[in-house]
Design a protein that fits this description.
Structural class: alpha/beta
Number of strands: 10
Distance between the termini: 38 Å
CATH architecture of one domain: 3-Layer(aba) Sandwich
Shape: globular
Radius of gyration: 17 Å
Strand content: 25-35%
Oligomer: single chain
Low-confidence stretches: none
Largest sheet: 6 strands, mixed
Mean pLDDT: 93
Number of helices: 10
Strand order of the largest sheet: 6-7-8-3-9-10
CATH topology of one domain: Rossmann fold
CATH superfamily of one domain: P-loop containing nucleotide triphosphate hydrolases
Length: about 240
């Protein structure tokens, strides 16, 4: 069986500057796969290319055996791939409720009360803040809203870019607990995360990126035990 998401020989440039040098990776249905690496390694570029925000120079992105390379972002979202960008990207001047509704905008069916209930079970604080403008939420609450908004499109695959960025340690634990829960309920996740230890203890498999190339790939158990990974990313 083919993987749910496949990236093959992807080359992406920003003008004359090459960001990705022919990377390939797979994400199987039901997995959490993580991309780790230093700032500027190409992790965000990879997610932005998968979700259609960037067009590659070469290579392909396939989802459910369909070539989605260069397809418009809203079409990719409607197909079942949702992107939670770095920096959250919520609509600050709209309410929490409005943000959630916008997450479901591309759906053909109606959002059921059960789906809202699911969001409020994952993130109870959003129920309390439902009428508040999203810009008045704390950083952690905004991250919860960004993930919830993406879930409203009923994704098969969730692309998460730096969900722990700028959050207090306790909030990081909460967010990652929910990431595991979302995955256990059947959503496949591709996770980019600066906190390598957190990423590798959450995901099933991992890819290590350096300057636009994948230099290591393995189970997260093997990567956690790797001297190279320990030295570069785990302070070992």
């Amino acid at each position: 069986m083919s993987p749910l998401l496949n990236v093959s020989d992807l080359e992406v440039s920003y003008g004359a500057i090459a960001a990705l040098h022919g990377i390939s990776l797979d994400v199987e249905k039901g997995e959490i796969v993580t991309l780790i690496g230093a700032n500027g390694a190409g992790k965000t570029t990879t997610l932005r290319t998968i979700s259609g925000l960037l067009k590659p120079k070469r290579g392909t992105v396939s989802y459910q055996d369909r070539n989605i390379t260069g397809v418009k972002p809203h079409t990719i979202t409607a197909m079942g791939v949702s992107h939670v960008p770095e920096g959250r990207g919520i609509f600050a001047n709209l309410t929490v409720s409005d943000n959630l509704e916008l997450g479901a905008y591309l759906r053909k069916d109606k959002v059921s009360p059960k789906e809202y209930e699911r969001i409020f079970t994952l993130f109870p604080v959003l129920k309390e803040r439902i009428k508040q403008n999203a810009g008045t939420l704390s950083g952690g609450e905004q991250q919860m809203l960004a993930i919830s908004r993406a879930l409203m499109s009923k994704p098969q695959v969730l692309l998460l870019d730096e969900p722990s960025l700028g959050l207090a340690p306790q909030m990081v634990q909460t967010i990652f607990g929910v990431i595991r829960e979302i995955n256990a309920e059947g959503t496949t996740i591709l996770l980019v995360e600066q906190n390598a230890h957190m990423a590798l203890t959450t995901a099933h498999r991992g890819y290590v990126m350096e300057t636009g190339r994948i230099v290591l790939q393995d189970t997260t158990k093997a990567l956690l035990a790797s001297d190279r990974v320990k030295k570069a990313y785990l302070g070992g």
